[in-house]
């Protein structure tokens, strides 16, 4: 039974397998036929699209060919037009070249004609010059010399006239401007000024004091001279003692020591030494206070204490009878006022004005002129180069700094003020003589007179040797030589006079 069932199961499985195979085969046959039909359809569609693409490609190719033909035609026409233009330009160039050659030929012919004409003109000129020389009785060189001389004389007259006009206009304008500036500065300054001199004369209470000062065998006076470095001169002048020394500070020291000794009454070498030391301390303190007061009065701050001490030494220094410390403070004020008016550096002018004569404080002890000494002092105490240059160049003819020019002008104003300085009678006569000697040293000068207390020199020239133009030059040369060789306050007017006098007698 089981075998039967098993056989039945096997048979049913075999039948199912066969049935499934048959069904699958039928399905496969159907799918293959369906795929073949689809493939054939796709192939047909592809062929139709291929035809369409081919047709479209042919159309595009035809359009491109047509466009290329049109472009080619356009380029051909452009090339032909360019060739036409080139041919025209070549023909035009050839024509111009031909014209140029013709012009060159014509110019060459004209040059030949001009050369021939020049030769003819030169020959005519030579003939005319020969005729003129015969008529005038002068050679060509002589006539040229006469003509040049006449032109030179005429040019001199015209130049002299213009120089006079320019000098008049310029001098008037600058004089007026200078007067305004200086008058404004001096009016604003308006400082009191008195002439101060360093006296070396000491008045004694009695003639008996002379013997006490001399001492036994001259020991007192020798001790005083040794300690102070001065010479004490005691002569027959009643109640008077003279102190002589190169340094004004030493003279003042000796004077102060003698005054204290006469008040004390005890005069002997030991007491003299003590008194001199006390006087030195007093003078040192006095100089420091004077320097501080001067710096404060001038408005200059920040100076080194030792430099202030040197400034204070100027209290005991005079120049032409003018106290140098008061003069320096006055220069500082005037320099500030001028700098404000001219738009210069006010502080530089102030400091330079106060220190411009600082070298005079030690010029009795150090070799050299006070400008160079002042320059070295400024550099030693670290002052700016501009301030040091003012000290060095304030007496130069042409300073480079504007502030130096201002200090130089203020210095001249202070020195030229009436009563500011005084000369001895011998120095005064010597200065006038030097002025006249400088003027008479020039060729053509007949006489020279210094007038107006040496402020003007009047010069008379020989008319036959000096013409108007030379007189103008002569005045300038004499003024330049006076500036170079003489030292003087203010300015000196050079007046050259040329006159011709013709005298006849009616009988």
Structure write-up:
- By secondary structure, the protein is mainly alpha-helical.
- It folds into 4 domains: 1-128; 138-190; 201-416, Hypothetical protein af1432; 425-497, GMP Synthetase, Chain A, domain 3 (2-Layer Sandwich), CATH 3.30.300.20.
- The chain is 70% helix and 7% strand.
- The chain contains 14 helices and 8 strands.
- The chain has helices at 2-136, 140-189, 208-214, 219-228, 248-264, 269-298, 305-313, 324-342, 346-355, 370-380, 385-393, 402-416, 425-440, 468-485; strands at residues 201-203, 231-233, 240-244, 318-319, 322-323, 445-451, 456-461, 493-497.
- A 3-stranded antiparallel beta sheet has the order 1-3-2, with helices on one face. The chain has a 3-stranded mixed beta sheet with strand order 6-7-8, with helices on one face. A two-stranded antiparallel sheet has the order 4-5.
- Helix 14 links the parallel strand 7 and strand 8.
- Helix 2 packs across helix 8 (324-342) and helix 8 runs antiparallel to helix 9 (346-355).
- The longest helix is centred in the first third of the chain and has 135 residues, at 2-136.
- It is flat, with a radius of gyration of 59 Å.
- 23% of the residues are buried.
- The model is unreliable at 190-199 (pLDDT under 50).
Write a concise keyword list for the protein shown above:
507 residues; mainly alpha; Hypothetical protein af1432; 3-stranded mixed sheet; 8 strands; 70% helix; 7% strand
Straight-line N-to-C gap: 212 Å
Question: What is the top-level CATH class of the largest domain?
Answer: Mainly Alpha
Number of strand elements? 8
| Mean pLDDT level | 81
- Summing up helix and strand content along with how strands pair, one would put the structural category as mainly alpha
The CATH topology name of the largest domain reads: Hypothetical protein af1432
Question: Level of helix content?
Answer: over 70%
């Amino acid at each position: 039974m089981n075998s039967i069932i098993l056989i039945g199961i096997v048979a049913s499985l075999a039948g199912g397998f066969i049935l499934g195979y048959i069904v699958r085969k039928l399905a496969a046959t159907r799918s293959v036929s369906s795929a073949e039909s689809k493939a054939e359809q796709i192939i047909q569609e592809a062929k139709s699209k291929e035809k369409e693409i081919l047709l479209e490609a042919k159309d595009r190719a035809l359009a491109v060919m047509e466009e290329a033909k049109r472009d080619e035609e356009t380029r051909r026409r452009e090339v032909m037009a360019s060739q036409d233009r080139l041919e025209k330009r070549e023909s035009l160039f050839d024509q111009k070249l031909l014209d140029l050659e013709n012009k060159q030929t014509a110019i060459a012919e004209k040059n030949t004609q001009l050369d021939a004409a020049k030769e003819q003109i030169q020959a005519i000129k030579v003939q005319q010059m020969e005729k003129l020389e015969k008529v005038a009785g002068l050679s060509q060189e002589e006539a040229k010399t006469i003509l040049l001389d006449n032109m030179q004389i005429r040019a001199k007259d015209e130049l002299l006239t213009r120089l006079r006009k320019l000098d008049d206009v310029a001098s008037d304008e600058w004089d007026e401007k200078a007067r305004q500036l200086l008058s404004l500065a001096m009016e604003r300054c308006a400082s009191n000024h008195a002439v101060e001199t360093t006296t070396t004369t000491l008045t004694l209470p009695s003639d008996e004091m002379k013997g006490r000062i001399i001492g036994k065998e001259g020991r007192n006076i020798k001790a005083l001279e040794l300690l102070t470095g001065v010479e004490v001169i005691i002569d027959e002048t009643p109640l008077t003692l003279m102190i002589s020394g190169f340094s004004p500070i030493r003279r003042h020291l000796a004077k102060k020591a003698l005054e204290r000794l006469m008040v004390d009454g005890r005069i002997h070498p030991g007491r003299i030494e003590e008194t001199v030391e006390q006087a030195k301390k007093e003078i040192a303190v006095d100089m420091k206070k004077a320097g501080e007061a001067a710096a404060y009065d001038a408005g200059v701050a920040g100076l080194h204490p030792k430099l202030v001490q040197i400034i204070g030494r100027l209290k005991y220094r005079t120049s032409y009878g003018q106290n140098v410390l008061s003069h320096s403070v006055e220069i500082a004020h005037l320099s500030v006022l001028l700098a404000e008016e001219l738009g210069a550096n006010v502080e530089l002018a102030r400091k330079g004005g106060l220190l411009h004569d600082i070298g005079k404080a030690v010029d009795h002890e150090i070799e050299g002129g006070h400008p160079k000494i002042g320059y070295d002092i400024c550099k030693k105490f670290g002052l700016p180069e501009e301030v040091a240059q003012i000290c060095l160049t304030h007496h130069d003819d042409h300073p480079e700094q504007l502030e130096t020019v201002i200090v130089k002008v203020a210095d001249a104003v202070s020195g030229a003020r009436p009563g500011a300085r005084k000369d001895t009678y011998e120095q005064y006569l010597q200065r006038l003589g030097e002025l006249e000697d400088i003027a008479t040293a020039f060729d053509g000068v007949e006489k020279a007179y210094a007038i107006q207390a040496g402020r003007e020199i009047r010069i008379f020239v020989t008319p036959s040797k000096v013409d108007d133009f030379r007189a103008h030059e002569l005045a300038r040369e004499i003024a330049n030589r006076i500036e170079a060789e003489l030292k003087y306050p203010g300015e000196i007017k050079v007046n050259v006079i040329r006159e011709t006098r013709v005298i006849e007698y009616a009988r």
